Amino acid sequence: MIGSNRVGRSWLAAACVMAALAGSQAATAQEAWIGSWGASPAFPVGPELSNATIRQLVRLSAGGTKVRLRFSNETGTQPLVIGAVRIARPGNAPGSIDPASGKVVTFGGEAAITVPPGAPVVSDPVEITVAALDTLAVSLYLPRWTGPSVVHPLSMQTAWISIAGDSTQATALPDAAPLEARFFLSRVEVAAEGGTLVTLGDSITDGYGSGVDANKRWPDLLAERLAKAGGPAVGVVNSGISGNRVLHDLPEAMFGPSALSRVDRDVLSVPGARWVVIMEGINDIGHSSSAGLTEQEVTADEIIGGLKQIVARAHGGGLKAYCATLTPFEGTVFAHYYSA
Questions:
Q1: Which phi-psi region, left, alpha or beta, contains residue 247 (left: φ > 0; alpha: ψ -120 to 50)?
Q2: Which residues form the signal peptide (predicted)?
Q3: pLDDT (tens digit, 9 = 90+) per residue, 304-326?
Q4: Which secondary-structure segment (H or E) carries 52?
Q5: CA–CA separation, 21 vs 231, rounded Å?
Q6: How far, rounded to the nearest angstrom, does the alpha carbon of residue 127 sit from its chain's CA centroid?
Q7: 72, 78, 220, 325: which could join 41 in a potential S-S bond, CB 3.0 to 4.6 Å?
Q8: Checking DSSP bridges between strand 194-201 and strand 273-279, what pairing results, if any?
Q9: Which string of DSSP letters, residue by residue, matches 268-291?
Q10: Mean pLDDT within 136-164
Q11: Distance from C-alpha of 208 to C-alpha of 153, rounded to nearest angstrom
């Protein structure tokens, strides 16, 4: 019996190794995916919605032969019920689509899905060929009450919301109200050979002051340069959140989870990620004094230590990290933000 057990264990171990190799080979044979667009979720500080359709425009940085979407309820407090999602080419009027170009987005083959608090969801691949710098309209129907919406607050892009049921196929949403925020949509990924560059930062990366619907954030301009250069596809995923800090959260505000707490979510989880540009730290210095948060005052060494942690985790994920220096901020309009 002892001998037969050993033989059995050896057979089982060999079978496990062969299964692992087969799985590895299958993974190698699978399509390659890269990130093409991103907006990092902050906290659930958006409006409460029900029976609503939201239409959002995204400009892709890299093209591919298929598209899939990632929606986030990672900071949400209520289940997110998604009733329907469609993607389409934009129409001629603001907030409209070309209905002939519409594609249904599914999740495990189903049109609807419930996303629990603390989780994201990735859609099935959608058969649509897109080019670098193409714009897609994403229409999302929310049949159930959301609680406070999980948003990316400073979108620098107009979204349209209609409280009139499932209007995902409508050319123009009925009685739509424009809002500047990203709702639940956190990433667009494309099937392509290449790599992804992630930009992790605060309002400078997020695009504050760059103009609404202008696509003039510095990661947008970088994407344009990379697309013009040609060669293998390089997606640029913007993981900036205005007001964000390396070391601290401020849940009641819209500054989002700290950079340290969102590295896995916003950098390492991005498919094809090979590079990360890190530009954070000014708000660690300024927020504590401008908001009277003396208990959150930090030293230069503490900020540097946090940045080193981000770099170490990026290296652990196989990424090359680039750290930008902090820009001057004397004379800022924010009271008590700067001191000698």
A1: alpha
A2: 1-29
A3: 999 999 999 999 999 999 999 99
A4: strand 52-59
A5: 32
A6: 21
A7: 72
A8: parallel
A9: ITSTTEEEEEEE--HHHHHHHHHT
A10: 97
A11: 11
